[in-house]
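ugh finaly. both done.
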Amino acid sequence: MDTTKFQASLLAAGFPQLAQAIDKIARLSLRLYATAAQEADLLPGTSKLGGLPDLPAGWQWPQWKGLPQSFIAQIRLADVQRFRQEGIGGSLPEQGMLWFFYDAHQETYGDQPEDRGGWSILFLEDEQVELQRRQAAPGLPAAALFQACALRFTPELTCSEQPALDISSLLWNTEDQQRYDAVIAGLETTAERAVPQHRLLGFPDTLQDDMRSQCQLVSHGVTDEDDPRQEELLKGALDWRLLLQVDSDPQAGMRWANNGLLYYWMNQADRAAPHVDASWLVLQSE
């Protein structure tokens, strides 16, 4: 799928307002294709899924409730910046490394304020710092240590699944949503539908409800629908953008609940220097 075809299809389907607001409902992402690899064949600092993290000396392996967290992925930002001219990655630092960790017991779903701390995002900007491959942290359950996989990056257009959430002035009903879904289904290629769907940036591939309101409310300690803070807080829901999506992946030995996905979200205002305090994680499953 590309933006031009998407825009043309929206016009043909009778959605001129969506075609004019294409920048609000279409975002480029990087699809991450994982291939199982031997850890020794991956140089320190290589982008990868699973395996063991390559960290600077002195950095601690993140923990949660007294247990080491699972290492999920590391992303070398130079691999992302190769696509900057195509309009991808401009919201991230141009250099450095990102590391992603998650609750080793997989009991963090992102639906409670107390879940904060059940994941970690580490960021290093200085590319000159030497990285050292760590041994598995003592106490990390064997099931929480995943198979190392090399990553290949491919640009992929993603679309809002519910445009009425992204365009506040949109008049929208169930029939409109069905016609919109048909447009998306008609444009998606076999490769775009294939699983697993690991993704950096763009719109997420959701299994349940849109997560941005959840990120905004729960990260501010709001879970009660009658909370008087809710209305004001929801004005900032669209500030949340997907940072990383990690699918259940047999190659890596990853399975999130019932074949679910992990979503690392970042508040747009803070993504120039990603850190855990400005992030939220959600696990959705079938």
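ok and the 2nd:
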Amino acid sequence: MHSTARSNKKDRKNVSAKKNRMHYVLLGSLGNITKPLAKKIIAAGHQVTIVSSNRERQAAIEALGAAAAFGKVEDAAFLTRIFTGADAVYTMVPPVYHVNNWKEYIHQIGKNFAAAIQSSGVKKVVNLSSIGADLPEGCGPVSGIHYEEEELNRLQGVDVLHLRPAYFYTNLLHNIGMIKNAGFLGNNFSADATLVMVHPSDIAAVAADQLLHLNFSGSSVLYIADDEKTSRQIASALGAAIGKPDLPYVEFSDADALKGALDAGVPEELARNYVEMGAALRTGIMIADYQQHKVPLGPIKLEDFAKEFAAAYAKA
């Protein structure tokens, strides 16, 4: 008698869990944000589909417990098909390296997202944006994200949350070669202006929290940041972690930054956009709106990331 009652109670619980199980579609393949984001949502008992353009990642995606969908964000019909039936989607514009007009490319992807969301009937969207996306011009590729945000904001009857993370700590890993070969850290950022930074894992944590609760409504913005340091302080922290406590920071002119990028083989369209973004960080215009809408800083500080940087530096 008691055994049967327990069994019925367990069956009811399983039925309830199935009813509450939601389906999320996540763009971003197995990137530094999407992979930990997918793990958190799957751990919470929900169905996840990860969109990737690389079929070689199918086994790794399925190993997480997610379904894999292969296609490109340039294909609005594909996105519509994959979004259909989802309770919520996570959108992000994947990085590209060979386009003629980077900002317009990002804008077009935003149009594709909006068309697919509207046609598929999705009602909840968490969109990866960026600090500086409030500005329509002057922030390099982030100005393209501004227009992507606007496309999503035009959707009727859809709740959209734009996550605006700060400068990724992991971008600093691209400087390992410079430090090893030239003996300094350099960019066209100001040596003493504040640079706001965040770790991708903390972006994933915030995205997961928002997707699991879905408490946002209308069109809204949420900034995500872990630490605020100057470029000089960054050089000092990274230098200390790799055994170079006197590692200097060198502020490049925009012209020198552009030349350095081109000499390194960066396509001109991307190089010019990166230099423009660096100038926006140098002048402070890129973080002005963030300063007006600050949120509590996350747990991963520069000194924490410096250990991760040192490990990568030792392997390079």
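summary for the 2nd one i guess: The chain has one domain: 12-231+271-315.
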